[in-house]
Amino acid sequence: MPRPPADTYQQLQLAASAGTGLPDISVIEDSHLAQFVSLEILADLTDKVQPYLSQFNQYRWEQATKDGKYYAMPWDSGPVAVFYRRDVFEKAGVDPESIKTWDDYYNAAKTIKEKAGVPMWQQAKAQNDGRLFEMLMWQEGLGYVDKDGNVILDKDPKIAEILDYMGKFWKEDLAADTQPWTDPWYKEQADGTVATIVEAAWMGGFLKSFIAPDATGKWGVFKLPAWQAGGVQSSNDGGSSMAIFETSQQKDAAWAYVEFHMGRPDEMMKICEQSDFYPGLQSTYSDPAFQEADPYYADQKVRAFFSDVAKEIPTAGVYTSDYQEMNGLLTPEIQKFALGQQSAQDALTNAANAIRDKTGRK
Known about the structure:
- By secondary structure, the protein is α+β, with helices and mostly antiparallel strands.
- 43% of the residues lie in helices and 11% in strands.
- The chain has helices at 5-18, 30-38, 46-49, 86-92, 102-116, 131-139, 157-171, 183-191, 203-211, 251-262, 265-275, 302-310, 323-338, 344-359; strands at residues 25-29, 65-66, 69-70, 73-74, 76-77, 80-85, 121-122, 175-176, 196-200, 219-222, 240-244, 278-279.
- It has a three-stranded antiparallel beta sheet. The protein has a three-stranded antiparallel beta sheet with strand order 9-6-10. The protein has a two-stranded antiparallel sheet with strand order 2-3.
- The radius of gyration is 20 Å and the shape is globular.
């Protein structure tokens, strides 16, 4: 069995503390990258990545950067869209093209529940992990902190509106109370007993490979609804980069490996075609494979679709050096809100104050 990511990160941090045992290279998820950059254990790649700075989705460099220097090479991006069950939408008589705003999505959820008997999305209450909330904030260029690193969860009224919006689905029984990344969660997706999944492009690889491999033709994707008509319809979840550790005695060879896989469109396309991990390298978007119809999505051109989404992802203060602590302090407050034990604003105020106490941020 492969080692779980959390265990891998823990082992890397222990090796860093011990001053020995670090590999030459590691893939690091963007949710953890800023933390490793702040530990000052990654090699400075500033000179080496210069030719690539304009070639990747620009938001992808955010977590790799500190004080004007670059410490990692981007790999995949996490452009977010709405995966939807065509059969459920057809049964309910809902046209996905009609969903342009989050109000439209909410109204469609009520229709789908009434006519198809299916919840719109899966959002656990007591086991909520905060990821959807983060995606919806990111869509508006918002996050835990602003560009100066100050905590804004309890200060920006839009953030409270987003959490209150999610609350409508819990209060009106429009969400499946299913713990994410568990067998029941997968089964609902495979059986079509949930109408949509709001997630990044890589979710398609999971659907095809082990969640719902027999559901060819039953899934489609459409852009995130906008918060206001004509607003941003893109967000991010996940993404990863390759970094070289400062302790490596083979930095030139390590960089040659990183550059071969991450800097070459042909290599990035091989990875994309096998895994649905979406390349952040924008020169891949002109590859003929991006115009291929995908039978799993009823011949929708999904790669081309996600290339438009990826180009529009805003920057947001979500994946900071304190991300793990901040997410860990926010999620129990979201859970109490979902269970009806406090208001959205109280949840955000409690989380923000706990984050300030824990991290020393303003």
